[in-house]
From TrEMBL:
GO BP term (any one): DNA-templated transcription
InterPro entries: LysR-type_TF_proteobact-type, LysR_HTH_N, LysR_subst-bd, WH-like_DNA-bd_sf, WH_DNA-bd_sf
Protein name (record): HTH lysR-type domain-containing protein
Transcription regulation among keywords: yes
SUPFAM superfamilies: Periplasmic binding protein-like II, Winged helix' DNA-binding domain
Lineage, opening ranks: Bacteria, Pseudomonadati, Pseudomonadota, Gammaproteobacteria, Alteromonadales
Amino acid sequence: MDKLRAITIFRRVIELGSFKAAAEDMRLSKAAISKNINELEVYLKSPLINRTTRRMHITENGQRYYDHVRTILDELSHADLSIIESSHQLSGLIKVCVPMSLGILKLNPAICEFMQFHPEISIEVILNDHYVDLIEQGLDVSIRGGGALQNSSLKSRKLLDMKRVLCASPKYIEQAGQLLSLDELNQHNSLIYSLSSSPRHWVFRKQKEKKAIDLAPGSYVVNNGLALKQAVIAGLGITLTPEIFVDRELKSGELVRLLPEWQAESHALYAIYPYHKEQSQKVRTFIDFLIDYFAQ
């Protein structure tokens, strides 16, 4: 048994969730994957994965072994990269997934600037507002909002906090009347971003006071931030959106901030990456650049 090969295969099976996916990812036959896992279990004298015809489940010993070998394999990768990358200019491909609206408005200009500093690096940008499995899709980085990570094979670094604002167009306010309190929100037409973690549940704070509003169905629901911005500018209603989307329109008066004394709960934007990619200098350099870019 080639032990290093076997534990590498074991790791990919666990991270991808199936023998078939690992076989496709590593360009091996499913039989070769099974053979290596079986030999590893015989060597360790313990089952690592329980499999049925439909599903597989990692055993308690399997989880413990995965946690150890993942660290070992990452250290080996780091040792290799420390030598390879120390004597070479940064180069190669970075595959990154970004939210469509934020990607077009803010992230893609940052990515283009990064490429000017590192002309030997190629970047494949995937614009997608939906959750994407980084490991399954072979991605290096995903930029998205969120909180604590549920997947232990992923890590994250915060890029920026995104303050959200309640806003509408002057045209809408003239027609529907001024919003005087949060309690009046359901008397107005709310424009909803459907991919939010809580599309119809908006939470606001004013000093120590907290108020949650459950919105009645509005006339416009959309899964894209740019489309939502166009709808609020057109005067269709009131929306809650990241300030970074509408900062220019708020300054020009095309949109009006409503109830500024109430602060909506902020969202944060993160760079998410597979645990083993932390050892890649080009990935680290890319994320460091984005953090510095937004800090400015």
